[in-house]
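Thread: Newbie trying to understand structure tokens

Hi all, I'm a second-year student working on a class project, and my supervisor (Dr. K.) asked me to get a predicted structure for one chain before our next meeting. I've only ever worked with sequences, so writing a 3D structure as a token string is new to me. If someone could post the tokens and maybe explain what I'm looking at, I'd be very grateful. Here's the chain:
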Amino acid sequence: AANRGWAEAAGKQFAALVNLAVVTNVVPYIVALSALFVMMRDAKVEPGVFKRNAVIAVIAMLYSVFALYASGKDAVMGGMLVMGIGYIIYGFIAPRVVAAPAAVRKA
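---
Reply by user tm_fold:
Sure, no problem. This is what the structure looks like when written as tokens:
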């Protein structure tokens, strides 16, 4: 009976981690997918290809939003906290790894 409790707790923890992983991966995917429309417009993609890709992108976005919803409010809140902290850390680290502009390098 004691093993059953441990296994159940481990199963719940695993499910929570999976849902958190879904949120932290799906949100950037939706953002990147939304850029497809701008990239296709700038690349002057043929109207038929644009329409096909747009339909696929909208279906993918709808599925992704459903995946977020199905993950649950706790996973979404946790995912936003993790992503927010990650963006803050990136804000401090990025200036060190981004190449300096040409004008600065010449000086």
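A couple of things are worth pointing out once you decode it. The mean pLDDT is 88. Residues 50 and 97 are 35 Å apart (CA to CA). Feel free to ask follow-ups in this thread.
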